Amino acid sequence: MGETGSGQRLRLGLVDGDGIGPEVVGSARRVVDEALSAAGCRAAEWVALPMGRRAIDEFGTALPESTLDGMAETDGWILGPHDNAAYPPQHRSAPGGAVRRHFGLHANIRPVQAIPGIRSVAPDIDLVIVRENSEGFYADRNMAVGSGEFCPTPDIALSVGLVTRAACERIAHEAFRLAATRRRQVTIVHKANVLPLTMGLFRDACYQVAREYPDIRVDDEHVDATAAHLVRAPGDFDVLVTENLFGDILSDLAAQLGGSLGTAASLNCSATRAMAQAVHGAAPDLAGRNRANPVALHRSAAMLLRWLAGRRADPGLAQAADRIDRAVAATFAAGIATADLGGLASTSEFTEQVTARVHKW
Ligand code: ATP
Questions:
Q1: 191 with 64, same domain?
Q2: d(Cα 282, Cα 274) in Å, to the nearest integer?
Q3: Residue with the nearest Cα to atom 31 of ligand 1?
């Protein structure tokens, strides 16, 4: 295997985040570096991008303009988790959400696949949740000015949900294109029985798009029925497409069925930009203890490399991504795991085990 494609340089951003962020982000960087080297790719140039608690202390804002500018100049970036609930009140809005909005990262792709060798409630789970990322009921996502939540009086709170046909069609295309590379089945998840206008529009727009993919099977479910169905028969699902909030909740449920939150990967993307971000949060209870499971971010970084491989037609990057996934699987198969999965390995020990295996294939 030669250099990365035409030997193009690869600039990757690195956002440490809060809580366990610096530990898992550092681990992911190490694994990516080794995988690129093992695949014969040019080494990545890493760009540190301050964001979160440390940025508040240093720049007076959780998301400095210089970080957004820096992201724009990278080929993609790894985003550590943020604990914005713990920031001073004036800084509490989620910086990760602001980044998704700024770059129009409309699709959040969240695969869940049980890994042989680790305990799992649902060993046959193998699905992808395709979550609409730009609107829905998120207070920070759905207004041009102001918040999507407001209080006319201190005792009354209102919430605005935003659903547009264009965003529904865009996310539906992501889901159907993805299903075409998998088991060719899409389930539209909504709640049109109680939100007939917003969720009805989501469901109907997805069905409209389905007509363009006649060889993909399609059905739909209410989100509460899907939660039960996921626990009863997770193997029934291939690709689920849903709105923002439902996707967030269902993906934590599915992640836990497949193993642990610590193994659940995700990619946030548009047609031109991508950001690797684990499904889990900053887990402050584990911060600084060398106990966090770094696998979610390893697999998210692999998704980013695979996305870049597709954009650049670069098989070297795809091979690096495969090496990461196989090294993680081989490490679990050897009985090595962090405490959340009942294992004894620390974050750094687990990282070294994966790093060593990246070269073995
Ligand atoms: P957010 O809303 O920001 O996603 P959250 O409230 O859902 O955050 P997390 O920070 O994801 O919560 O963590 C919930 C719990 O799951 C943590 O307290 C921790 O015990 C466990 N956990 C999360 N991520 C990991 C990880 N990478 N390794 C081990 N345990 C984890």
A1: no
A2: 21
A3: 262
What pTM was estimated for this model as a whole?
Answer: 0.92
Question: How far is CA 224 from each of CA 24, 111, 194, 203, 246, rounded to the nearest angstrom?
Answer: 33, 20, 12, 15, 9
For ligand 1, the distance from its centroid to the CA atom of residue 21, given in whole angstroms, is 11
Residue 155 a catalytic site member? no
Residues 217 and 277 in one domain: no
**Over the stretch 113-156, which tens digit does the pLDDT of each residue have?**
998 888 889 999 999 999 999 999 988 878 888 889 999 999 99
Nearest CA residue ID for atom 8, ligand 1: 281
Residue 316 sits in a domain whose CATH number is: 3.40.718.10
Question: For the chain, how many structural domains are there in total?
Answer: 2
The best mutation among 253, 261, 346 to test binding of ligand 1, ranked by most ligand atoms within 8 Å of the C-beta, falls on 261
- Residue of 18, 75, 248, 340 with catalytic role: 248
Residue 18: active-site member: no
